[in-house]
Amino acid sequence: MHMLTDISTPADIETLVNHFYGKVLNDSLLADIFKKQIGNNWEVHLKKMVSFWHTLLLNEQHYFGSPFMAHADLPIKEVHFKQWMSLFNTSVDALFEGPKAEEAKDRAAKMAAMFQHKLAYYASHNKKPLL
């Protein structure tokens, strides 16, 4: 049996991001939303996501931006976030184990909850986010 290691290098982050988005692109619920939003800019998107997770998990500043704004106008609901989380957690668990792997899942869950809260707030107040 192959022992899994924890997330510890930029290469680990890249492996996770590529594995996860491979699942997203083949998912019946999420693929069309991502393809419509990202178009042919997958290389740019994947690099941005590697930078984002590198910053969060390896504590080295590589990402600068506002992740929520990219999601503010998407037609996404709770069911989409649940599927995103399922694919993310499955990806982490397939590749890694340890404190950083658990941190990745925890941070993803908190981010999904925050995004859902913000989307609901703006929808119920008929406002557009500024940041």
Automatic annotation (TrEMBL):
Record protein name field: Group III truncated hemoglobin
Binding site for heme: 45, 117
Signal peptide: none
Keyword Hydrolase: no
UniProt keyword DNA repair present: no
Pfam family, one: Bac_globin
Domain of life: Bacteria
Taxon lineage: Bacteria, Pseudomonadati, Bacteroidota, Sphingobacteriia, Sphingobacteriales
GO molecular function: heme binding; metal ion binding; oxygen binding
Key words of the record: Heme, Iron, Metal-binding, Transport
Alphabetical list of InterPro entries matching this protein: Globin-like_sf, Globin/Proto, Hemoglobin_trunc
